[in-house]
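Objective 1.3, modelling of assemblies. Example input:
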Amino acid sequence: MNCATLEALLERLALGQLNPLERAAVTQHLTDCAACRELVELAQIAAGSDAQKTLSPPDELMARVLAETAGSGCPSAERALCDLVDDRLEGVEAELVRGHLAACSECGALERVLASLVDELPEMAEIHPGRQFVASVLAATLPWHVRGARWWRRTWPRWVRRPRFALEAAYAATIVLVVLFTTPVSPLEAMPRRAVQIVQTVPTPRLDDQWTRLKADLASRVATVGGSEGVRAVVDGWRETIELGDRTLQRSRAVAHEAPGWALEQIRTFWGQVASLLERADADPAAADQDSDEETS
Amino acid sequence: MRQTQGRVFAIAVHYMRNREEARDASQEAFVKVFRGLHTLDPSAPFLPWLLRLTRNCCIDRQRRLKVRTPERPVPINEALDTAVDDPTPEDNWLTGATRRLVHRAMNALTEKNREILLLHDIQQLKLEEIAQLLQVPIGTVKSRSNRARIELAKAIRKIDPSYGVSA
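Predicted structure (tokens):
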């Protein structure tokens, strides 16, 4: 406390309205400051009180006052406790609070807890989140497709290793097959029936055999035709037809392993055209000549 | 990240009070740090920025969780049992017991008091930084901090009257 503070409290001091802490601070200041003692004397004289009691405090007054006011001084002491523990309280105020702590066991215990917490609380600033934390954060910063791929690589083996995976896979596959082949809107709905038909159909003779027979038939017909120009033109047309048949068969063989159905259809078409040409040639060689020109073109 | 992950996780544990949620909130905070590093002012201190970001993540997450069906929260002690990185088994018991006591006492405080203790006394942020973070005057931060410490000390005394006697 300084002289200015005392002057501010002077009126209440003279009227005896100071609280114990203020009174103790004033008493302490008056022991050191003669000017303030005179001021207080004057004030108390003016107030008509007994100045002598205030101006000459007994040596043990402070301790006695604090001991008597331990209970009522607790709120003020509590307010100052943190500053005291943090060494932010100095001078008379610090002494006053320490005096209160010495007299008040409850506040003293509180101060000891606060002093322990000064060391304890900062140590709680860190809690280790676990070894995988950094990895999980880094993984979360990856692009979504990389994360998805990593998740799949990590999850898939776990799924497969489960004992019931085979059962679940069979169940899922059954559902997929049923949906694919029995749903009316599915494009594969007719496939089982077609498969059965193919299996039940008599196997088609080999293409080579068919062509060999067809070629022999054509050759015999070429050998039997007459010597007129129209007939020779027909024969030439047939020869071209035979060569065309050879080329078509070779091309069909090349793609037969990929599209046997398409190749077979090509051969059948060609065979049908040649057969109809032969039939018309048998019936009317002149008409067949024209047809052969058209086919050749 | 390795230097600050402990602090970030500690903040998250205090806000979320659930280890798994705290872990998710911490991860979210770090992901935001990675994506928002370019917004960081190089002249400004990093730690307050990081802690503010973590706090905001935790608060956002708490809001989202309130919308969902509440799950059973894992007690803070349970979270700390697995979270504290103790060097030796002998140290575990003492340090763990003291920290559990402090955490139990903190659980008895109001949310505001817990928060100010966390930021000022545990994370050691400056009053100015806390005032900026909480959008309150510095004087309010200081008085709230003192009040929170006294409340914590009283709560600890209530749980364990012998605490601090040997100190």
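Chain A has a mean pLDDT of 75.
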